[in-house]
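Entry 12.
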Amino acid sequence: MKLMKGILLILFVLLITGASSQSTREINVKILSLENVPYEAKITTDLINEKVVIQLDSFKSIVFYGFRDLVESPRIMGDKFLIISYKMKGGSGLSQIRSSILCITGNDLIPVFDVLSSLKMELEEVYDNDVVVQGLYDEKKSYGLKVLGLTSENGNYTLLGEERYEAVSKYNPTLNCDIQNTVEIDFNDYFKVFSNGSKPLNGDYIIGQISGDAITKYFFGEEYPVVQLKNYTYFFIEGNWYIKDGLKHLTKF
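Predicted 3D structure (C-alpha cells):
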C-alpha cells in the first residue's frame, strides 16, 4: 500500500511539473538599442498567471497582463523594435488581440506602441427600450490593424499598417459598413514613442487597469502624445499607454 501511494505521488508530481512547463515558454531575441548597443531580451509567456514578461536583466523588465496565447512569434523590426501580439481574455461575445512594440534606449525598455489591434464583438440579442427584440441576431463589429513593417530614413522611423472596420447589423442596417485605410505613424524622438498627434486630457478621469489592480481617479490638465486609430484613442502618459474607452474613463495597459 505504501509503495502504491509513493508511485501515485510521483506520478502526480510529474503531471503537475509537466503541466507547469507547458504553461510557460521562453523566447530569446537579439535586438539593438536606439543607440546601436546590442542586447538579448528574454520573453516569458505565462498562461497560468496570464502575463507576458519581457526582461533585459534582473532589474529591467516589462509585464503585460491578460495573456491568453501568442498570435505569432515575437519579431524584430528594423533591428531595434520588438513587436509582440497576443490574444487577451474577453467577455461574452468579445475577442481581442493586443499588439505591443518595445525598444531599448538608455538601458531601459520602452513601450513605444501599445494598442488593441483586433477587436471582435458578436451580439446574440438586441435590446430596444429594455425589451428583447426577437429574431434580430448577427449583430457584429470587428476592427483590425495589421502592422506591415517599418521604414527608416535618416534615423526617422515610420510604422506602416492597414486598418479595417466592419459592422453588420440586422437590427439597424444603416450601421453596416466596411472601411479600409492605410496607416502611417511616425516615431516621436522626444517622447520615444510612435505617435500621430497629441491631445489634451482635462478634468477628472476614472482609471481602470488590465492587470486587475484597483480603480483610481486622477486629474489631468495637460496634452499627451496619442495614437489615433479608427476604434480608439491611445494616450502615452508618464511611461505607460492608456486607452480612452469612455467619456471620462481610461484603462491603463
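Annotation: Residues 3-21, 129-135 have pLDDT under 50 and may be disordered. The chain has one domain: 25-252.
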